[in-house]
Amino acid sequence: MYYQSRPVVLRVLCFSVFISLLFSCNRVPDNPWTQAIPESATFVYVFNDGTSLDQALNSSVIPFLNDTGFFETDRIREIQDVTQVQIQVKALFTEPADANRWAPVFIGTAPEQADYLAESFSRAFTENTYQFNGLTIHRLYFREGDLYYLVQLGDWLVASPHSRALEATVRSFTGSESAMSLSGSFSPEPGAYFNFPKTGSLARQVGAVRFRPNIKDAFNGLEPAPLSIEREGSGTEQV
Protein backbone atom coordinates (compact mmCIF):
# COMPACT_ATOMS: atom_id res chain seq x y z
CA MET A 1 0.00 0.00 0.00
CA TYR A 2 2.88 2.34 0.84
CA TYR A 3 4.64 1.67 -2.47
CA GLN A 4 1.43 2.17 -4.43
CA SER A 5 0.81 5.61 -2.87
CA ARG A 6 4.30 6.95 -3.68
CA PRO A 7 3.65 7.53 -7.41
CA VAL A 8 0.44 9.37 -6.54
CA VAL A 9 2.25 11.59 -4.03
CA LEU A 10 5.04 12.32 -6.53
CA ARG A 11 2.55 13.25 -9.22
CA VAL A 12 0.76 15.60 -6.82
CA LEU A 13 4.04 17.23 -5.81
CA CYS A 14 5.14 17.65 -9.44
CA PHE A 15 1.78 19.16 -10.34
CA SER A 16 1.97 21.58 -7.40
CA VAL A 17 5.48 22.69 -8.39
CA PHE A 18 4.36 23.19 -12.00
CA ILE A 19 1.40 25.35 -10.94
CA SER A 20 3.60 27.42 -8.63
CA LEU A 21 6.14 28.01 -11.40
CA LEU A 22 3.39 28.90 -13.85
CA PHE A 23 1.88 31.54 -11.59
CA SER A 24 5.25 32.94 -10.55
CA CYS A 25 6.28 33.35 -14.19
CA ASN A 26 3.08 35.20 -15.08
CA ARG A 27 2.96 37.41 -11.98
CA VAL A 28 3.81 41.05 -12.61
CA PRO A 29 6.69 42.17 -10.35
CA ASP A 30 6.00 44.93 -7.84
CA ASN A 31 8.47 47.38 -9.34
CA PRO A 32 8.56 51.19 -9.35
CA TRP A 33 7.47 52.87 -12.58
CA THR A 34 11.08 53.81 -13.37
CA GLN A 35 11.77 50.14 -14.10
CA ALA A 36 9.44 50.43 -17.09
CA ILE A 37 11.86 52.80 -18.88
CA PRO A 38 14.31 50.66 -20.90
CA GLU A 39 17.94 51.67 -21.24
CA SER A 40 17.32 52.08 -24.97
CA ALA A 41 15.01 55.06 -24.30
CA THR A 42 16.28 58.32 -25.79
CA PHE A 43 14.33 61.01 -23.93
CA VAL A 44 12.34 61.00 -20.65
CA TYR A 45 10.07 63.62 -19.16
CA VAL A 46 9.02 63.13 -15.52
CA PHE A 47 5.82 64.94 -14.53
CA ASN A 48 4.89 66.37 -11.15
CA ASP A 49 2.83 64.13 -8.89
CA GLY A 50 -0.89 64.33 -9.62
CA THR A 51 -0.51 65.39 -13.26
CA SER A 52 -3.59 64.34 -15.21
CA LEU A 53 -3.41 63.04 -18.77
CA ASP A 54 -4.96 66.27 -20.07
CA GLN A 55 -2.44 68.35 -18.13
CA ALA A 56 0.42 66.23 -19.45
CA LEU A 57 -0.73 66.65 -23.05
CA ASN A 58 -1.02 70.42 -22.55
CA SER A 59 2.42 70.75 -20.96
CA SER A 60 5.37 72.51 -22.58
CA VAL A 61 7.12 69.25 -23.43
CA ILE A 62 4.50 68.18 -25.98
CA PRO A 63 5.02 71.07 -28.44
CA PHE A 64 8.77 70.54 -28.16
CA LEU A 65 8.46 66.87 -29.07
CA ASN A 66 5.93 67.56 -31.80
CA ASP A 67 8.29 70.18 -33.25
CA THR A 68 10.93 67.50 -33.69
CA GLY A 69 8.58 65.84 -36.17
CA PHE A 70 9.00 62.39 -34.63
CA PHE A 71 5.43 61.82 -33.41
CA GLU A 72 2.04 63.24 -32.54
CA THR A 73 0.15 62.62 -29.30
CA ASP A 74 -3.42 63.76 -29.97
CA ARG A 75 -4.87 60.26 -30.27
CA ILE A 76 -4.17 59.28 -26.67
CA ARG A 77 -6.62 61.94 -25.43
CA GLU A 78 -9.45 59.59 -26.37
CA ILE A 79 -8.24 57.05 -23.81
CA GLN A 80 -9.03 59.38 -20.91
CA ASP A 81 -12.51 60.04 -22.31
CA VAL A 82 -13.61 56.42 -21.82
CA THR A 83 -11.71 55.34 -18.69
CA GLN A 84 -13.50 55.02 -15.34
CA VAL A 85 -10.73 56.77 -13.37
CA GLN A 86 -8.59 59.86 -13.73
CA ILE A 87 -5.28 58.76 -15.25
CA GLN A 88 -2.29 60.42 -13.60
CA VAL A 89 0.77 60.47 -15.84
CA LYS A 90 4.10 59.74 -14.18
CA ALA A 91 6.33 59.98 -17.22
CA LEU A 92 6.57 60.14 -20.99
CA PHE A 93 9.57 58.71 -22.76
CA THR A 94 10.61 58.05 -26.33
CA GLU A 95 11.86 54.76 -27.67
CA PRO A 96 13.43 54.15 -31.10
CA ALA A 97 10.65 52.76 -33.29
CA ASP A 98 12.40 52.52 -36.65
CA ALA A 99 15.33 54.06 -38.51
CA ASN A 100 14.29 57.71 -38.18
CA ARG A 101 11.47 57.88 -35.67
CA TRP A 102 10.89 57.84 -31.93
CA ALA A 103 7.72 56.36 -30.47
CA PRO A 104 6.15 57.95 -27.37
CA VAL A 105 5.41 55.76 -24.36
CA PHE A 106 3.12 57.04 -21.60
CA ILE A 107 3.33 55.66 -18.05
CA GLY A 108 0.38 56.45 -15.79
CA THR A 109 -1.38 55.24 -12.66
CA ALA A 110 -4.67 53.52 -13.44
CA PRO A 111 -5.04 50.20 -11.57
CA GLU A 112 -7.04 47.48 -13.33
CA GLN A 113 -8.07 49.67 -16.25
CA ALA A 114 -6.43 47.86 -19.18
CA ASP A 115 -9.22 45.32 -19.73
CA TYR A 116 -11.93 47.99 -19.54
CA LEU A 117 -10.13 50.26 -22.00
CA ALA A 118 -9.38 47.37 -24.32
CA GLU A 119 -13.07 46.48 -24.47
CA SER A 120 -13.96 50.09 -25.33
CA PHE A 121 -11.50 50.12 -28.26
CA SER A 122 -11.87 46.52 -29.43
CA ARG A 123 -12.81 45.49 -32.94
CA ALA A 124 -15.00 42.52 -33.83
CA PHE A 125 -13.45 39.58 -35.70
CA THR A 126 -9.99 40.98 -35.01
CA GLU A 127 -7.12 39.80 -32.80
CA ASN A 128 -7.38 42.39 -30.03
CA THR A 129 -4.63 41.02 -27.76
CA TYR A 130 -1.39 39.07 -27.87
CA GLN A 131 0.91 37.58 -25.25
CA PHE A 132 4.40 38.89 -24.62
CA ASN A 133 6.71 37.79 -21.77
CA GLY A 134 3.71 36.29 -19.98
CA LEU A 135 1.68 39.53 -20.11
CA THR A 136 -1.31 40.54 -22.23
CA ILE A 137 -0.76 43.42 -24.63
CA HIS A 138 -3.99 45.00 -25.85
CA ARG A 139 -4.54 46.60 -29.23
CA LEU A 140 -6.70 49.74 -29.08
CA TYR A 141 -8.43 50.49 -32.38
CA PHE A 142 -9.55 54.08 -32.94
CA ARG A 143 -12.29 55.15 -35.33
CA GLU A 144 -9.83 56.82 -37.69
CA GLY A 145 -7.92 53.56 -38.06
CA ASP A 146 -5.07 54.54 -35.74
CA LEU A 147 -3.74 51.90 -33.36
CA TYR A 148 -2.35 52.09 -29.83
CA TYR A 149 -0.91 49.32 -27.68
CA LEU A 150 -1.66 49.03 -23.96
CA VAL A 151 -0.36 46.90 -21.09
CA GLN A 152 -1.09 46.80 -17.34
CA LEU A 153 2.06 46.54 -15.21
CA GLY A 154 0.63 46.24 -11.72
CA ASP A 155 -0.82 49.67 -10.91
CA TRP A 156 0.95 51.22 -13.90
CA LEU A 157 -0.87 51.64 -17.19
CA VAL A 158 1.50 51.93 -20.16
CA ALA A 159 0.47 52.95 -23.69
CA SER A 160 2.26 53.55 -26.98
CA PRO A 161 1.38 53.72 -30.68
CA HIS A 162 4.21 51.32 -31.45
CA SER A 163 4.29 47.67 -30.32
CA ARG A 164 8.08 47.48 -30.35
CA ALA A 165 8.32 50.38 -27.88
CA LEU A 166 5.78 48.78 -25.55
CA GLU A 167 7.53 45.41 -25.69
CA ALA A 168 10.79 47.10 -24.69
CA THR A 169 8.93 48.49 -21.67
CA VAL A 170 7.67 45.04 -20.69
CA ARG A 171 11.16 43.54 -20.98
CA SER A 172 12.59 46.32 -18.82
CA PHE A 173 9.88 46.09 -16.15
CA THR A 174 10.06 42.31 -15.86
CA GLY A 175 13.85 42.32 -15.67
CA SER A 176 14.67 40.53 -18.92
CA GLU A 177 16.49 43.70 -20.05
CA SER A 178 18.11 46.57 -18.17
CA ALA A 179 16.23 49.73 -17.24
CA MET A 180 17.51 53.23 -17.90
CA SER A 181 19.50 54.66 -15.01
CA LEU A 182 17.88 57.85 -13.73
CA SER A 183 19.16 59.91 -10.81
CA GLY A 184 16.99 59.05 -7.83
CA SER A 185 15.76 55.99 -9.70
CA PHE A 186 12.79 55.34 -7.39
CA SER A 187 11.58 58.94 -7.46
CA PRO A 188 13.50 61.14 -9.93
CA GLU A 189 12.94 64.89 -9.90
CA PRO A 190 10.32 66.20 -12.36
CA GLY A 191 11.80 67.49 -15.59
CA ALA A 192 13.43 66.36 -18.82
CA TYR A 193 16.24 63.82 -19.11
CA PHE A 194 18.26 62.92 -22.17
CA ASN A 195 19.83 59.49 -22.47
CA PHE A 196 23.21 60.51 -23.85
CA PRO A 197 24.55 56.93 -24.20
CA LYS A 198 21.88 56.41 -26.90
CA THR A 199 22.57 59.70 -28.65
CA GLY A 200 25.18 58.14 -30.91
CA SER A 201 22.76 55.68 -32.46
CA LEU A 202 20.22 58.45 -33.08
CA ALA A 203 22.82 60.76 -34.62
CA ARG A 204 23.98 57.99 -36.93
CA GLN A 205 20.39 57.42 -38.00
CA VAL A 206 19.57 61.02 -38.89
CA GLY A 207 23.01 62.40 -39.67
CA ALA A 208 24.78 62.51 -43.00
CA VAL A 209 26.62 59.30 -43.89
CA ARG A 210 30.00 61.05 -44.14
CA PHE A 211 29.79 62.13 -40.47
CA ARG A 212 28.89 58.72 -39.03
CA PRO A 213 32.47 57.50 -38.38
CA ASN A 214 33.11 60.61 -36.25
CA ILE A 215 29.84 60.18 -34.35
CA LYS A 216 30.22 56.44 -33.64
CA ASP A 217 32.01 56.65 -30.26
CA ALA A 218 31.53 60.34 -29.44
CA PHE A 219 29.06 59.72 -26.60
CA ASN A 220 30.72 56.74 -24.91
CA GLY A 221 31.04 57.09 -21.13
CA LEU A 222 28.19 59.58 -20.76
CA GLU A 223 25.14 58.98 -18.55
CA PRO A 224 21.51 60.15 -18.65
CA ALA A 225 21.31 63.77 -17.53
CA PRO A 226 18.73 66.55 -16.99
CA LEU A 227 18.04 68.58 -20.11
CA SER A 228 17.43 72.32 -20.49
CA ILE A 229 16.28 73.74 -23.81
CA GLU A 230 16.81 77.33 -24.85
CA ARG A 231 14.14 78.80 -27.10
CA GLU A 232 14.89 81.94 -29.06
CA GLY A 233 13.15 84.95 -27.56
CA SER A 234 11.99 83.17 -24.41
CA GLY A 235 15.20 82.41 -22.54
CA THR A 236 16.03 79.03 -21.08
CA GLU A 237 13.10 76.77 -20.31
CA GLN A 238 13.20 73.43 -18.52
CA VAL A 239 10.91 71.29 -20.67
Q: What report would you give on this structure?
A:
By secondary structure, the chain is of the alpha+beta class. 31% of the residues lie in helices and 25% in strands. The chain has helices spanning 2-26, 53-57, 61-67, 77-82, 114-120, 163-174, 199-206, 212-215, and strands at residues 43-46, 88-98, 101-109, 129-132, 135-141, 147-153, 156-160, 191-194, 225-226, 229-231, 235-237. The protein is globular and about 45 Å long. The relative contact order is 0.17. Residues 12-25 and 235-239 have low confidence and may be disordered.
Helical segment tally?
8
In the predicted model, the low-confidence regions spanning at least 5 consecutive residues are: 12-25, 235-239
Structural class computed from helices and strand pairing: alpha+beta
**Major β-sheet strand ordering:** 4-5-6-7-3-2-1-8-9
Largest sheet: 9 strands, antiparallel
**Mean residue pLDDT:** 75
Q: What does the secondary structure layout of this molecule look like, with pairings?
A:
Elements (H helix, E strand, L loop, with lengths): L1 H25 L16 E4 L6 H5 L3 H7 L9 H6 L5 E11 L2 E9 L4 H7 L8 E4 L2 E7 L5 E7 L2 E5 L2 H12 L16 E4 L4 H8 L5 H4 L9 E2 L2 E3 L3 E3 L2
Antiparallel strand pairs: 1-2, 1-8, 2-3, 3-7, 4-5, 5-6, 6-7, 8-9, 10-11
Write a concise keyword list for the protein shown above:
239 residues, 31% helix, disordered C terminus, alpha+beta, 9-stranded antiparallel β-sheet, two-stranded antiparallel ribbon
